[in-house]
Amino acid sequence: MNKDRSSKEKRRLPERSQELISLEEEIKTCYRCPLAGGRTKTVPGEGPGRAGLLLVGEAPGKDEDQAGLPFVGRAGSVLDRALKEAGIDRAEVFITNVVKCRPPDNRRPKKEEVEVCRPYLESQIEIVGPKVVILMGNAATKAVLGVEGVTNLRGQLFSDLFLVTFHPAAVLRNRDLEGALVSDLSAARYRAKILRGSADDGGGSDLPGGQGAFSTEKRDSTFESARGRESI
Ligand code: URA
């Protein structure tokens, strides 16, 4: 378990909407798929009721299953570090997974499991109202966009909302990917900020937009170069 989640952080509980609380209650009592039988705790997600950024991983692992919280294990440490480097406060973003229960032996969630869990993710996106939904890794990208191939897709924006990036566990396996993860998170932060109308340059016209889902367009350099700007 990531010991960095200090008691100080726990005390800063984000404001949660009643809708989000009700949804979490529903998830906690969900038995719609066989993953329910193997879980210790459900892992609905964590974060404020409204947030500019919503991050989607694959599925809870062992530590998350024990804690009932997303990204608290080794991959969580990588994510925490990347968020920090990108100037993003973890407490201000919403973090969840494609499926809310741990698959046995951390295997990838099956298609049927993703399908039955999908309405929960859709509701979370609707309630939280993010400016950017960050799809971390192939499972999240496949579940939401229907395509995979993160190495080629990363840094690209789809349907003006979904940004693909590497999963923190991929960074654990290959540290060279960390810069790309941080860069994508920074770009997402910048986009969320300007869409909120508070960019330092007051603009936004230089941002990519209008790429449809399944777009294979190459990353926009403006989006990529957003790294290092003001935090959301
Ligand atoms: N990996 C994920 O995809 N999600 C978590 O919550 C933890 C590890």
Description:
This protein has a single domain (18-224), classed as Uracil-DNA glycosylase-like domain (Uracil-DNA Glycosylase, subunit E, 3-Layer(aba) Sandwich), CATH 3.40.470.10. The chain has helices at residues 7-11, 18-28, 35-38, 62-67, 74-85, 111-128, 138-145, 150-153, 168-173, 178-195, 221-224, and strands at residues 53-57, 94-97, 132-136, 157-158, 162-165. It is globular. By secondary structure, it is α/β, with parallel strands linked by helices. A hairpin with a 3-residue loop joins strand 4 and strand 5. It has a five-stranded mixed beta sheet with strand order 2-1-3-5-4, sandwiched between helices. Uracil binds next to loops.
**End-to-end C-alpha gap:** 28 Å
Bound molecules: uracil
The structural domain count equals: 1
- Biggest sheet, strands in spatial order? 2-1-3-5-4
Helical proportion?
40-55%
Outline the secondary-structure elements.
Layout: H1 7-11, H2 18-28, H3 35-38, E1 53-57, H4 62-67, H5 74-85, E2 94-97, H6 111-128, E3 132-136, H7 138-145, H8 150-153, E4 157-158, E5 162-165, H9 168-173, H10 178-195, H11 221-224
Parallel strand pairs: 1-2, 1-3, 3-5
Antiparallel strand pairs: 4-5
Helix pairs in contact: 2-6, 5-10
Short description:
It contains eleven helices and five strands; from the N terminus they run αααβααβαβααββααα. It has helices at 7-11, 18-28, 35-38, 62-67, 74-85, 111-128, 138-145, 150-153, 168-173, 178-195, 221-224, and strands at 53-57, 94-97, 132-136, 157-158, 162-165.
